[in-house]
Fold this sequence. Notes:
Blueprint: H1 4-18, H2 23-28, E1 29-35, H3 46-60, E2 65-74, E3 77-87, E4 101-113, E5 116-124, H4 126-132, H5 147-153, H6 157-160
Parallel strand pairs: 1-5
Antiparallel strand pairs: 2-3, 3-4, 4-5
Amino acid sequence: xxxxxxxxxxxxIEEGFNRGDLSVVDQLSSPSxxxxxxxxxxxxxxxxxxxGVIRSLRGAFxxxxxxxxxxxxxxxxxxxxxxxxxxNDGRFMGHAPTGRRIRIDVIDIVRVxxxxxxxxxxxxxxxxxxxxxxxxxxPSTTSSPGxxxxxxxxxxxxxxx
Length: 161
């Protein structure tokens, strides 16, 4: 049987993130909910910030979906490994829609207290999303990383002077 923390987190993912129902955030969150994921200086705190994340993702990817790949519960803490997918048909991180699909890894840790969401730490693969959308390019593979550093590090002062 699933624990209370697991049930609450699964509801947030399914109803909030996957269906876009923002009312579930108010139903499941503590008034003192704390978000530890960095969304930038203008991001709202608490439950309004959580609703903002859902609204932003669903606005950028109208078919956004989180799938739970692994889930573990330890007391009041839920650890998740998820896969986020969607088609970019709205603005994302200041960029116009690309029409491309993404598939990214997400790690979430959620603490539930007294049956309510109390804290969240998250690590989505934002850089991978930007690569997949064509909004950033991976580093060039024509030169080996750190080649210049190795050359300088193995040189003696007489060789570099």
